[in-house]
């Protein structure tokens, strides 16, 4: 009995000694190190406590900052396309970056990839199609109604949209019928013009614009009334027009 | 047997203590090296950074053309699917009293083709609304950063929150933590991606791609440390709001003309 107890106490003592020499220092060390660890090591992961960064984060920053650019900005376009740039800067689209319509310029600059803008009505409609959510002051038309047979750029050159497509020296093609100065908005037109030639007073040098809507049903034989010797002759600017050309710039509208 | 066990325990204790010391000291050393590499290191809030970038969104100007989305996807190689987006535009429809009623989250994130908010909603004619462009707010106190278990997302000295795609394990904790829904899981890399304000552009002095292509200047970008910056002047002259100020994240995207009800 005694002998067994002696052995047991011996074992206990040995365990206690081992704890005192190994376990206790380890425990004390842990008690000191864990709070230090909390403060010194984990704190950098909580930026609101300390903004210090780790080495790999610096490398990541540099890697992300070194990513290649796709959009280069209008200044780069001006280097080769100075004429278009000048026109664009004068026009109403001067706040619209080249790459907004043409797309990212990087492939064009580095590989000569084509960068022509989408000429479709829908491309213009991305900004200008009538939408209730758009700011009221922003110029909008209903794509479905506004000269739906024509492309936008036939009348509104994209680089300077309020100037009509025809240049001061009109081509023989009828697509550029020069007309008056008021911007027509057929679907909201509050002033349908009663006379078919409101442009007579426009100076020949003034940049021509889109024509006003035609306030009567169309029969297709415009010149039977609007010939120089007709009931309501066309203005001098319109001399030489043929029946089919009128609808290029004038649509039925108004009343 | 007895001796070898003692030896083993002793060695184990030494290894443990050594490990704790190495693990405790090494990051501090690395940190010190990182600080040396970036001499402008300072707290993000003490106003001494090299840049004080700020992003301004003018809600009253946005026309919802989605050029920003298109440019962002192109510039940052964001996948084409609608759920992958670094920036997006929400459409709010206003009620008769002018209060915002509701919005179509993420409208237009599928690109410039208009799938039609008006068509979907069948709003009564004449209902007015507005667009709210959204992107990462680059919060001063970003809730997405401390939740990352692998420290893959962090804040740069200039306050931009970045994600290291090489370290990200795609656990999506940060997606849950962001009160603005600004993060998404890249379906190609299966890592989290987010707007960086085009970090690769702004560090070269260029505007973010979305600002570059915005046709109506609804998105503006600048550096408050630059005395010539128009944004600096604008913020002096006009009152701006931030999204969800109650979350205490201190967002850096300032909104002009934000109506009540926009979250």
The separation of the N and C termini of chain B measures 70 Å
Q: How do the SSEs of chain A run, as a string of H and E?
A: HHHHHHHHH
Report mean pLDDT of chain A, rounded to a whole number. Answer: 74
Which geometry of chain B do the CA atoms define? Answer: elongated
What form of chain A results from the Cα inertia axes?
Answer: rod-shaped
Q: Write down the oligomeric state.
A: heterodimer
Beta percentage of chain A is: under 5%
Helix-strand makeup class of chain A = mainly alpha
Characterize the largest beta sheet of chain B: strand count, sense, and whether it forms a barrel.
Answer: 3 strands, mixed
Terminal-residue CA separation of chain A: 123 Å
CATH topology name of the largest domain in chain B, in short, is: Alpha-Beta Plaits
**Gyration radius of chain B, to the nearest Å?**
23 Å
What is the gyration radius of chain A calculated from CA atoms? 39 Å
Count of all domains of chain B? 2
Largest sheet of chain A: none
Task: Indicate the percent of residues in helices of chain A.
Answer: 25-40%
Written overview of the protein:
- Helix content of chain A is 36%, strand content 0%.
- Chain A has nine helices and no strands.
- Chain A has helices spanning 2-40, 55-65, 74-78, 82-90, 98-102, 106-111, 121-128, 223-226, 246-249.
- The longest helix of chain A has 39 residues, at 2-40.
- Residues 43-51 and 166-208 of chain A have low confidence and may be disordered.
- Chain B has 263 residues and is an alpha+beta fold.
- In chain B, the strands form four sheets. Chain B has a three-stranded mixed β-sheet with strand order 9-1-10, with helices on one face.
- Chain B is elongated, with a radius of gyration of 23 Å.
């Amino acid at each position: 009995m005694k002998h067994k107890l002696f052995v047991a106490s011996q074992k206990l003592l040995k365990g206690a000694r081992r704890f005192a020499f190994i376990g206790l220092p380890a425990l004390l060390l842990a008690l000191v190190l864990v709070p230090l660890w909390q403060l010194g090591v984990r704190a950098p992961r909580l930026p609101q406590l300390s903004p210090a960064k780790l080495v790999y984060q610096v490398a990541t920053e540099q890697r992300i900052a070194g990513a290649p650019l796709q959009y280069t900005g209008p200044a780069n376009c001006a280097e080769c396309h100075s004429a278009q740039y000048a026109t664009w800067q004068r026009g109403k689209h001067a706040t619209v970056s080249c790459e907004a319509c043409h797309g990212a310029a990087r492939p064009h600059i580095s590989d000569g990839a084509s960068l022509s803008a989408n000429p479709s009505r829908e491309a213009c409609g991305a900004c200008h199609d009538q939408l209730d959510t758009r700011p009221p002051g922003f110029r909008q038309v209903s794509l479905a109604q506004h000269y739906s047979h024509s492309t936008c750029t036939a009348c509104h050159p994209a680089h300077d949209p309020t100037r009509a497509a025809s240049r001061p020296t009109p081509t023989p093609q009828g697509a550029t019928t020069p007309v008056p100065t008021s911007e027509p908005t057929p679907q909201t037109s509050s002033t349908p013009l009663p006379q078919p030639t409101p442009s007579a007073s426009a100076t020949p040098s003034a940049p021509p614009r889109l024509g006003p809507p035609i306030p009567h049903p169309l029969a297709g034989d415009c010149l039977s009334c609007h010939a120089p010797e007709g009931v309501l002759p066309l203005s001098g600017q319109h001399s030489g027009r043929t029946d089919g050309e009128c609808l290029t710039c004038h649509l039925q509208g108004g009343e | 047997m007895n001796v070898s066990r003692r030896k083993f325990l002793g060695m184990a204790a030494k290894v443990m203590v050594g490990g704790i010391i190495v693990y405790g000291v090494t990051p501090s050393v690395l940190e010190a090296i990182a600080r040396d590499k970036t001499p402008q290191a300072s707290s993000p809030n003490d106003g001494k950074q090299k840049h004080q970038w700020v992003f301004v969104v003018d809600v009253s100007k946005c026309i919802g053309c989605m050029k920003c989305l298109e440019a962002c996807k192109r510039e940052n190689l964001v996948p084409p699917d609608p759920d992958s987006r670094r920036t997006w535009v929400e459409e709010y429809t206003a009620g008769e009293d002018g209060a915002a009623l509701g919005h179509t989250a993420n409208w237009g994130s599928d690109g410039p083709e208009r799938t039609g908010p008006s068509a979907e909603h069948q709003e009564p004619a004449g209902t007015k609304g507005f667009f709210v462009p959204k992107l990462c707010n680059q919060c001063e106190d970003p809730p997405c950063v401390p939740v990352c278990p692998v420290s893959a997302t962090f804040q740069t000295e200039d306050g931009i929150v970045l994600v290291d795609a090489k370290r990200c394990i795609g656990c999506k904790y940060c997606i849950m933590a962001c009160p603005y829904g600004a993060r998404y899981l890249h379906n190609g890399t299966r890592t989290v991606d987010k707007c960086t304000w085009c970090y690769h552009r702004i560090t070269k002095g260029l505007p973010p791609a979305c600002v570059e292509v915005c046709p109506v200047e609804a998105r503006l970008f600048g550096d408050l440390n630059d005395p010539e910056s128009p944004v600096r002047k604008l913020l002096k002259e006009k009152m701006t709001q931030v999204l969800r100020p109650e979350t205490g994240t201190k967002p850096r995207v300032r909104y002009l003309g934000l109506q009540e009800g926009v979250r």
